[in-house]
Design goal:
Elements (H helix, E strand, L loop, with lengths): L1 H10 L5 E2 L2 E2 L4 H16 L8 H9 L13 H4 L18 H4 L7 E3 L2 E5 L15 H11 L4 H5 L19 H6 L3 E2 L5 E2 H4 L2 H13 L1 H18 L4 E2 L6 E2 L5 H11 L6
Antiparallel strand pairs: 1-2, 3-4, 5-6, 7-8
Helix pairs in contact: 1-2, 6-12, 11-12
C-alpha cells in the first residue's frame, strides 16, 4: 500500500525532495502524517490490509471509506462480474455507486493546499522502430485520437490534456461520457451523481496554471539540451541518450512554441 502512504505524506507536505533538491523529510510534517496513517490503520477492520481486501470490505458495506485507485469506479457500479458489489443480492446493482462520494485531494495540518497521488503515462518508442510512423501515431493518439486513448480505461485515465485550440475543455467534457466497464458498458455519468463527476474534473481546471508551467519548463529543457532520454531533476541537464524519439514527439505535439494545447 505504498501509494496510499505516499498520498498521506504528500497531503501533509512531507517529502524528501524540495525545490532545493533532495533535502530529506521535515520531521514535524513526517510525524504528523505517520500519526494520521497509524490512526486510520487502527480504525480499519482487522486482517491484512491490502487492495483486494479493502475493495471487498467496501463493496460489502463493511467499511465507511477506502483509499483506492479510480479504477474501482466501473466495478463499483456493477459493470464487472469478477468484482461485483455485494452490498445487496444484485451483483449488477448501482446502489453503492449512487451513495459513494469521491475525494481527489486531502490536506494535512502542515499543508492546507493538500495534494493527490497520481502518475502520468508516456509513450515509449524503441530505437529499432519506424520513428516517423511512431511520431505520427503519438501525435494522433494525443490529438484527433485522444478520446480513443482515454476510452481504453476512462475510469483510470484522466485527460492530462484538457482540450485543444478550439475548446479548452474538450477532453474534460468528453471524459465523463466515455463508456467504462468489462462485462457491461456505461458512462461514468450514467451511474455517478453530477457532484461526483464535478469533484473529479474540478481538479483539471485548477491545475491549468501548473500544466502551463510544466509545458514551459519542458520547452526550456528540450530547447537547451536537445532530445535527451531524460533530464536531471535538480540541474536540468540532459542525460542518457541524446536523440530519443519520444522526447521529439513531446516537443512536436506539446512543448514546442507552435504546438497547440
Amino acid at each position: 500500500m505504498s501509494q496510499v502512504l505516499e498520498h498521506v505524506l504528500l497531503a501533509n507536505g512531507a517529502s524528501p525532495v524540495s525545490a532545493e533538491g533532495i533535502t530529506g523529510f521535515d520531521e514535524a510534517r513526517l510525524v504528523e502524517a505517520l500519526t494520521f496513517y497509524k490512526a486510520i490503520a487502527k480504525a480499519s477492520p482487522s486482517g491484512e490490509l491490502y487492495w483486494k481486501q479493502s475493495r471487498e470490505l467496501y463493496f460489502a458495506g463493511k467499511a465507511a471509506m477506502i483509499i483506492w485507485s479510480p479504477f474501482i469506479l466501473d466495478e463499483l457500479a456493477g459493470l464487472r462480474d469478477s468484482a461485483p458489489p455485494t452490498i445487496n443480492d444484485d451483483p449488477t446493482s448501482t446502489e453503492l455507486a449512487a451513495k459513494t462520494g469521491v475525494v481527489t485531494t486531502f490536506a494535512g495540518p502542515s499543508n492546507p493546499d493538500g495534494a493527490a497521488w497520481a502518475d502520468i503515462r508516456y509513450f515509449g518508442v524503441t530505437s529499432s522502430a519506424d520513428t516517423d510512423a511512431a511520431i505520427e501515431f503519438v501525435k494522433y493518439s494525443l490529438d484527433a485520437g485522444y478520446g480513443e486513448t482515454l476510452a481504453i480505461a476512462p475510469e483510470g485515465k484522466f485527460p492530462v490534456r484538457r482540450g485543444d485550440a478550439e475548446d479548452g475543455l474538450k477532453f474534460v467534457k468528453l471524459w465523463s461520457t466515455l463508456p467504462v466497464g468489462v462485462d457491461r458498458k456505461a458512462a461514468l455519468s450514467d451511474h455517478y451523481p453530477s457532484e461526483v463527476i464535478n469533484q473529479i474534473t474540478r481538479r483539471f481546471n485548477e491545475q491549468a496554471a501548473l500544466a502551463e508551467r510544466l509545458r514551459a519548463d519542458t520547452r526550456h529543457l528540450i530547447a537547451s539540451a536537445g532530445f535527451c532520454e531524460y533530464f536531471d531533476p535538480l540541474s536540468g541537464e540532459g542525460a542518457g541518450g541524446r536523440a530519443f524519439s519520444w522526447t521529439a514527439a513531446v516537443w512536436l505535439d506539446w512543448a514546442s512554441p507552435s504546438a497547440e494545447g
